């Protein structure tokens, strides 16, 4: 077996399809986000503006967060020193879990090293707790949800995206006595559309199902205290398990679930992804707790975030660019070809100092390849002007169609 030949073939296929992904070496500088420095392979440097980051509100640079992390670092050092069960639970972890439970108006929360692990570990563990569980999963759910459901060995039903009739039909076709869970998202990050939370909760009540809501692209940004779309819509009490991240709007690192005390206790006791993983460093937990607490009261930052997103969408629509607009903070511009998408991304970076990564298959369907912009409150009018002018120039240069997509 020529193993290297197989590796060459696999990587070569990505190059041939225009889907090969490259890392660029960037250095964020405190107090200057979204501006950063791109360190090129030849040793030179270029100033760039990050337009595809998940630090949606700039909290990774917020003085409240940095002060909490410095204090924790001086008090405890770097790592936690163990799993949560063996020496890795500190006052910082408990404080963060209390903040998150309060945020989502739940009895408890449970920290994981990432929201991916939180989804994977929880969804793969639930059939152990509810034998015979059937999980109904939206077809556009995160890869971490799909993986957790796949690994659990239980029954699954994939329903068409946001299609309530299809979900109802699948629920009605199964044994009424079987335990059921509906897994879906509040904001789907590739198109920026919202899940029909209330209507899915209604179906869950009708068919006796639990609800599992992934809010990773909404926590911190929606709701009067940043509790997500479920909080915004007054539906927190109807969601059984909420998954969230600390690495996007909260600007730090980690993931979690929020649920009843019994649910969190059972998951922490049975999920290998929790039991056998070193806990978050106390310094990270401290920064995340400070961020969550701050955003419960900073509605002005959330409002400014939505204003910046609306401004960018309006400007791009004015150019006739094919953007998808479902009213969220995510701004996808569909190019429709992986090679063209990569060319646009490369030119934006090299010629204009604008960093946005191509989004290609399998993340999105073939033919819908796109650039996905994530404006933040710190992307001001100057940054928006520069981006809009660059997109106008390059769209014409590449002779791409200008036709706004329906939201």
Automatic annotation (TrEMBL):
Enzyme Commission number, as recorded: 2.3.1.37
Record field: catalytic activity: succinyl-CoA + glycine + H(+) = 5-aminolevulinate + CO2 + CoA
Limits of the Aminotransferase class I/classII large domain: 48-390
Domain of life: Bacteria
Gene Ontology biological-process entries: protoporphyrinogen IX biosynthetic process
Pathway participation: Porphyrin-containing compound metabolism; protoporphyrin-IX biosynthesis; 5-aminolevulinate from glycine: step 1/1
PROSITE patterns named among the record's database cross-references: AA_TRANSFER_CLASS_2
Entry keyword set: Acyltransferase, Heme biosynthesis, Pyridoxal phosphate, Transferase
Required co-factors: pyridoxal 5'-phosphate
Enzyme category, top tier: transferase
Quaternary organization: Homodimer.
Family: Belongs to the class-II pyridoxal-phosphate-dependent aminotransferase family.
NCBIfam families assigned: 5aminolev_synth
Name used for this protein in its record: 5-aminolevulinate synthase
């Amino acid at each position: 077996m020529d193993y290297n030949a197989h590796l060459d073939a696999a990587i070569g296929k990505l190059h041939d399809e225009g889907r090969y992904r490259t890392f660029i070496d960037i250095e964020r500088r405190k107090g200057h986000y979204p501006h950063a420095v791109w360190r090129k392979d030849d040793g030179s440097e270029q100033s760039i503006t990050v337009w595809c980051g998940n630090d949606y509100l700039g909290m990774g640079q917020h003085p409240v967060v940095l002060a909490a992390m410095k204090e924790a670092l001086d008090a405890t050092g770097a790592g936690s020193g163990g799993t949560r069960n063996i020496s890795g639970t500190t006052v910082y972890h408990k404080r963060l879990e209390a903040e998150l439970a309060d945020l989502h108006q739940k009895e408890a929360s449970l920290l994981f090293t990432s929201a991916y692990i939180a989804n994977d570990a929880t969804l793969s563990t639930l059939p152990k707790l509810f034998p015979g569980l059937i999980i109904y999963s939206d077809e556009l759910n995160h890869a971490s949800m799909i993986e957790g459901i796949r690994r659990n060995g239980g029954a699954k039903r994939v329903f068409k995206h946001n299609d309530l009739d299809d979900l109802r039909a699948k629920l009605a076709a199964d044994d009424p006595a079987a335990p059921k869970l509906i897994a879906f998202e509040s904001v789907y990050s590739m198109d920026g559309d919202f899940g029909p939370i209330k209507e899915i909760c209604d179906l869950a009540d009708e068919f006796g199902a639990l609800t599992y809501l992934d809010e990773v692209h909404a926590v911190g940004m929606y709701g009067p205290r940043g509790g997500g779309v479920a909080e915004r819509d007054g539906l927190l009490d109807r969601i059984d398990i909420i998954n969230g991240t600390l690495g996007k709007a909260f600007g730090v690192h980690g993931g979690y679930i929020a649920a009843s005390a019994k649910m969190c206790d059972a998951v922490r006791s049975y999920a290998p992804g929790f039991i056998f993983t070193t806990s978050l460093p106390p310094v990270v937990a401290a920064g995340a707790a400070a961020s969550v607490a701050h955003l419960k009261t900073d509605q002005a930052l959330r409002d400014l975030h939505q204003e910046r997103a609306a401004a960018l969408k309006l400007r791009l629509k004015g150019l006739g660019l094919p953007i998808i607009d479902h009213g969220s903070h995510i701004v996808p511009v569909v190019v429709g070809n992986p090679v063209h998408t990569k060319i646009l991304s490369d030119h934006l970076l090299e010629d204009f100092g604008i960093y946005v990564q191509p989004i290609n298959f399998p993340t999105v369907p073939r033919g819908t390849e796109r650039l996905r912009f994530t404006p933040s409150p710190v992307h001001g009018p100057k940054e928006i002007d520069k981006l809009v002018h660059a997109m106008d120039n390059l769209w014409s240069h590449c002779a791409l169609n200008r036709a706004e997509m329906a939201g």
